[in-house]
Amino acid sequence: MNKFTRIICFLMAFSLVSSFIVSCAESNDNANESQQQTETEMEENLNSLESRILVSDGLPEIGFDGEEFLIMVQEEFKYDAGVEEISGDVLKDEIYNRNQRVSERFDSDVKWISGGDYGKMSVTIRKTAQSDDDVYELCMAHVIQTGTDITSGIFCDWMEFPYVDLSSPWYPQYAVEACTVNGTLYALVSDATITSAESTYCVYFNKQIANDFSLESSNFYSLVRDKKWTIDKMAEHVKLVYNDLNGNSKKDINDLYGNLTILFYSFNSLWAFEQPICEIADDEINLVLNTEKTVSIIDKMYSFYYENDGVFLTEYKPSKDRFAAGQSLFLMCHFYPAMNELRSMEQDYGIIPFPKWDEAQESYKTTIDGSFNVLVVPSAAALEDYERIGIITQGLSADSWKYVQPAFYDTALKVKGTRDEESIEMIDIVLNGRVVDFSWLYLGWSGFNFIVYDMLNAKKSGGDFSSYYQRELKSKTKAYEKAFGFFYK
């Protein structure tokens, strides 16, 4: 067995085995102490993959007479639902095997079709709901578009499906908590899709550039471990790196920078710096964005992007291409490049979390790009199909957690996508810090989610936070109240 397969991190918040061991360790129940020690010793004697496989999904031995189970998935990430055949790619083969295992176990033919892009898929789902045509048992849909669609009442409540155990480790608890409102849950973040991990925002750094500018690349790992990796520290490093590669005495995209990047990813700052947009308490929703910290975040990020000599703003593809070509110390992005463009990068790179706001912030946080797949069931689903949908969904999610996710973390990403053991440690820190909240899921493009990006553009033109916020407040407040009101009909 590959050694990297044996180092799957159980620090992730959704790891049932870890939480079980910790909770047992904290127990003072002497009657269970002996059993607890036995179970702990058993876990220590098994490698992580074997431990996962032993976790029960709680499903009955049941068959559905070969009945088809059809999944519709957005085209861009259709591999979440399945692949056509074995190809030799470890990750894709495991997705293929997952579908085969679940199909055989429950005698239900798991198949998938593309729903097109997220807009087209949204239209299809709406038509399905309105016509009561239960063609699709399950949909893997674009998270932000889905959040908008949810408040139209076109999906079923996951709380009503038997056998979908939301306390299971294959349903990340940070997402279960964030997506559950007034005891209902319409969008399910599940390990049945790997896009929730692929889409997580992180920071890459070029080791060669760090060494050339005497930054000592290994210190980035130390800064993270010592909880000193902050936006101010990153700005200091960025400022030190510039080289006029083409010798034209003008800063352009052909030069070397500390951060050749895109402005759009600045929106992640609110989550990375732990500034909430709204809070829910006592069955009410309140906007809590109008704070001194928000103003400070906008000011600091403006300085970072527009007043730092080591920054050059470009577009999405050039930012990845230029980093791969060795023209940028940092790349602020998600994990997709590690899976794709950076595979053939000649210079070594490492991965670290998005920086904290300051050293007082306890942990590193980040969010997930709004295109990843969540699980939804169109409201046309018949009640007599709930059991089958629940069982197959639980089965696909559990099997993915046991086999597909390890293939992603430890083979596709941690081995092929990184160049050192320390990056593996950093990836776990990044994934442990993922945040999905009410605003990100249910407001999408109509809320305040992109306010940092919008304000940086506005400030460039002479705008300020106070006037922008007051101008947008009335319409945004209505949007939040409308979304929240869906759950309190």
Tally the beta strands: 14
Give the DSSP E fraction (strand runs of 2 or more residues). Answer: 5-15%
Q: Low-confidence stretches at least 5 residues in length (pLDDT < 50)?
A: 1-46
Q: Please, what is the average pLDDT?
A: 88
Terminal residue distance: 53 Å
Q: How many helices in DSSP terms? A: 20
The helix content is 40-55%
Radius of gyration: 23 Å
Largest sheet: 6 strands, mixed
* Overall geometry: globular
Q: How does the helix and strand content classify structurally? A: alpha/beta
What's the helix and strand layout?
Elements: H1 16-25, H2 33-45, H3 48-54, E1 67-73, H4 90-106, E2 108-114, H5 118-131, E3 138-142, H6 143-150, H7 173-179, H8 195-198, E4 201-206, H9 207-212, H10 218-225, H11 231-239, E5 242-243, E6 256-261, H12 269-272, E7 278-281, E8 284-287, H13 292-306, E9 311-313, H14 316-324, E10 328-334, H15 336-339, E11 349-352, E12 366-367, E13 373-376, H16 386-413, H17 421-432, E14 434-435, H18 438-442, H19 451-460, H20 465-485
